[in-house]
Amino acid sequence: MPDESPHVLYVAWGFPPCRAGGVYRALATANAFARAGCRVTVLTAEREAFERYTGTDPSMEEQVDESIEVVRIPFDWPGMESDLRRWSAARVFAPRLWRKWRAKEDQKDFPEAAYGPWWGPLRAAALQIHARDAVDLVVATANPNVDFAAAQILNEQHGVPYVMDYRDAWMLDVFDGSLLHEEGGRVEQLERSLLEKSSEVWFVNEPIRAWHAERHPDIADRMHVVANGYDPEFAPEPQLEAPPADKPLSFGYIGTVSPKVPLAEFAEGWRVAHERHPELATATAQVRGYLGFYSTPSPVLLNLIDEYSDVNLSYGGPVPKAEVRQVYENFDVCLLILGAGKYVTSGKVFEYTSTALPIVSVHDPGNAASDVLRDYPLWFPVDDLEPESIARALEAAAEAARNATPEVRQACRDYSLTFARDLQLQPRVEALRELAGGRDSLEGRTA
């Protein structure tokens, strides 16, 4: 007898073993639908694409629910190709002309640099999956926004409902609030069409949801906040006791460091605190994660960290997901260093709260992460990104690392429990499972 449980197609360019931003959200969402009793197929890129371009974390593949089928299709990224043997003659001898041609070619079918050429293979793969085992619901996550193309084709040809899950935004620059694409342009028209036909739209925080709701009031009731949250199975154990008095304090950051992250400002503030406060004079600060978005660390960011090695600032490299808990155990204070913008949160802010450690926020006070941390008992925000303000926050956090009572630390841990990722996903997954219904529940459905 055939399995009558709903078939959910989850579309995510970045899926384990990819280590690009948003992959933890993708993994958790696919697993949540599987735990809810859905048959889940994930449509993603081949492992080789991640190995060549973004870097991989093989330990994450072990966390994919064993019932999930993962369909991988080829993805080429010519602009990121570093092997000269793979370059065309045009790229070698006329690189500027080649880049202009490549930019046009990328967006011929879908208006997204680098990812546009995936539009055709993605649509074909979605149709093949549906022909083999009819899909009841598509959940597509961005970025890249080309992932929405699989949802679009199955909706157009077979009436399959779909969810658009925005990790950031398509039209909105989450850092400065400006538009990334012109009003009335190709991107704006395509996004508007996709939104109008969607069953639900997810955003990672309320400021981004509200911005979109104001632009698209007719579908505001379909827009939901599904915060990133933290993964309990990877979350650090709460540290309810102060570190030994003779142990130098360890400050730590875990996450991707992009050019938007105020690492230079933090480093200057760290130097000020290191040179004047007894606790900071012996303390260390370590950055863990990727420097930049790709597998090769940014030389600029590497050099920046090296310039402050004399004040015990260092880079410790990426952290496999399976080792995150162990790394947190070595921290006495967490550093949340984020780019500016009221629309910016961070996946790590939720995980940080589960440590019960002091958290220093080195970001614009108007950043959306402030809304998450506002009631966290051991939160030390900066007033601005000047060295003096950063130094004061670091010094206050150092004092708290030494003196915070177990009761205060337990209050931090209790506060964090509402941010578990499964609690963020559960209401929407339950509602969508009901929407998907059984295999014969959709009008116009074809096998």
Description of the structure:
The chain is α/β, with parallel strands linked by helices and 447 residues long. The protein folds into 2 domains: 207 residues, Rossmann fold; 170 residues, Glycogen Phosphorylase B (Rossmann fold, 3-Layer(aba) Sandwich). The chain contains 17 helices and 13 strands. The strands form 2 sheets. It has a 7-stranded parallel sheet, sandwiched between helices. Strands 10-9-8-11-12-13 form a 6-stranded parallel sheet. β11, α13 and β12 form a beta-alpha-beta unit. α9 packs across α15. The radius of gyration is 23 Å and the shape is globular.
Low-confidence stretches: 438-447
Cα-to-Cα separation, first versus last residue = 16 Å
Would you count the extended β strands for me? 13
Largest sheet: 7 strands, parallel
Secondary structure: helix percent: 25-40%
Supply the helix-strand structural class: alpha/beta
The number of helical segments is 17
Query: What amount of the residues lies in strands?
Result: 5-15%
What count of domains describes the coordinates? Answer: 2
CATH-defined architecture of the largest domain: 3-Layer(aba) Sandwich
Organism: Knoellia sinensis KCTC 19936
Pfam families: Glyco_trans_4_4
Keywords: Glycosyltransferase, Transferase
InterPro entries: Glyco_trans_4-like_N (IPR028098)
Sum this structure up briefly.
The chain is of the alpha/beta class.
Please write out the topology:
Layout: E1 7-11, H1 23-35, E2 39-45, H2 47-53, E3 69-73, H3 89-93, H4 95-106, H5 119-132, E4 137-142, H6 148-158, E5 162-166, H7 186-197, E6 200-203, H8 206-215, E7 223-225, E8 250-254, H9 263-276, H10 278-282, E9 284-288, H11 299-307, E10 313-317, H12 324-328, E11 333-337, H13 348-353, E12 359-362, H14 369-373, E13 379-381, H15 387-403, H16 406-416, H17 421-436
Parallel strand pairs: 1-2, 1-4, 2-3, 4-5, 5-6, 6-7, 8-9, 8-11, 9-10, 11-12, 12-13
Helix pairs in contact: 1-17, 5-6, 9-15
